[in-house]
Amino acid sequence: MSHNVVDRRRINGPQRSVEPVYTTKVLDPFATGRLDERALDQVRPIFIKTGPLDAQSLSAAAPSGSAYYEQGKIRVSCAIYGPRQGRKSNARMGSFDCDFKYAPFSCSWKRSHIKTSDEKEIALMLEHSIAPAIRLESYPKASIDAFVTVIESDGKAATIAAAINCISAALADAGIELYDSVAACSMALHGEQW
């Protein structure tokens, strides 16, 4: 039997290995600015469009309003359905429900299409931040539903802020009565600088 048999089911390693070089010096990633070459006080460029999902479907399942939001490498879409028949028939005020999900390809931490507890928690945060701005007393016995999909993410806090801005624009596109539109941003403290 030959000793030079190659197992084709395995990936063979290199013939010669090199010891890794360990650096003890930790570099500050924000020393010369951000990784995307923005200054520390510079905002990501923003693009927003309302109504992109309305034109795509002509069926009865078309959303009442929709919005697409880009902020740097973050891309979020939102569809608003409602006001429609609510779950509680004797409610004096309407309800606002939010569904939030990351697309499986949107970020490195999302691996499957199954809803995670993190997405449920973010959906609850979005409901609590947007619901006070909606005039729910104008919609008794009704439900307003927002479906948010993150197409591309560049950090969790910035993605949540972008989702809030996208929902606010989609609600305005749907013609839902609001006290005011909701705006959000994310910030970080690096040393002494915000």
Summarize the structure.
This is 3'-5'-exoribonuclease. The chain has 194 residues and is of the alpha+beta class. It has helices at 117-130, 156-174, and strands spanning 46-50, 65-71, 74-85, 95-102, 142-152.
Can you walk through the features of this model?
This protein is α+β, with helices and mostly antiparallel strands and 194 residues long. The protein has 2 helices and 5 strands, in the order ββββαβα. A 5-stranded mixed beta sheet has the order 1-2-3-5-4. The radius of gyration is 23 Å and the shape is extended. It starts with 45 loop residues before the first strand and ends in a 20-residue tail after the last helix.
The whole-number mean of residue pLDDT values reads 84
Beta-strand share of residues: 15-25%
Count of extended strands: 5
List the helices and strands in order.
EEEEHEH
| Helix-strand makeup class | alpha+beta
Radius of gyration: 23 Å
Helix content range: 10-25%
Describe the global form: extended
Number of helices: 2
For the largest beta-sheet, the strand count, sense and barrel status come to:
5 strands, mixed
Q: In which order are the strands of the major sheet placed?
A: 1-2-3-5-4
Distance between the termini: 69 Å
Protein name: 3'-5'-exoribonuclease
Organism: Coemansia linderi
